[in-house]
Amino acid sequence: MTLLLTLVAAVVVTCIWYTSEKARQMKVSMLCYMFWGASLMWMVDAIAEYIELRAEYFQPALQDMLNDTFLGVSVIALALVVWVLTLLVKDPLGVLRPAAQNK
């Protein structure tokens, strides 16, 4: 489930990055790198787990699926927080600097 969530996030963010010039200015590519990297990491994990468990890999317990879902949502939320903090520090559109100078 974690792999699925991060793949969906990676595809959505990549589509947004590709179609919008403003998204490129807002450093959405950073989100692309984070989500595709997480997807690659969990793909390797899934392959290793499949090698270990074989057919049992496709029959996870409900508790395991719920834990994986919470982990996937947490990873997406953390990536968004890191992205927002990066935007606040770098201020790519120059919105915060003038506001800070006026005070």
How is this structure best described in words?
It contains 5 helices and no strands. With 103 residues, it is mostly helical. The mean pLDDT is 91.
Individual helix count:
5
Query: Mean pLDDT, as a whole number?
Result: 91
The computed structural class is mainly alpha
Q: Indicate the percent of residues in helices.
A: over 70%
* Run of helices and strands: HHHHH
Overall spatial form: elongated
Largest pleated sheet = none
Computed Rg? 18 Å
Compute the separation of the termini in Å. Answer: 47 Å
Low-pLDDT residue intervals, each spanning 5 or more residues: none
Characteristic terms for this protein:
elongated, mainly alpha, 103 residues, 5 helices
Set out the fold topology:
Elements: H1 2-19, H2 21-25, H3 28-53, H4 62-90, H5 96-102
Question: In brief, what are we looking at here?
Answer:
The chain is mainly α. Helices cover 83% and strands 0% of the residues. It has 5 helices and no strands.
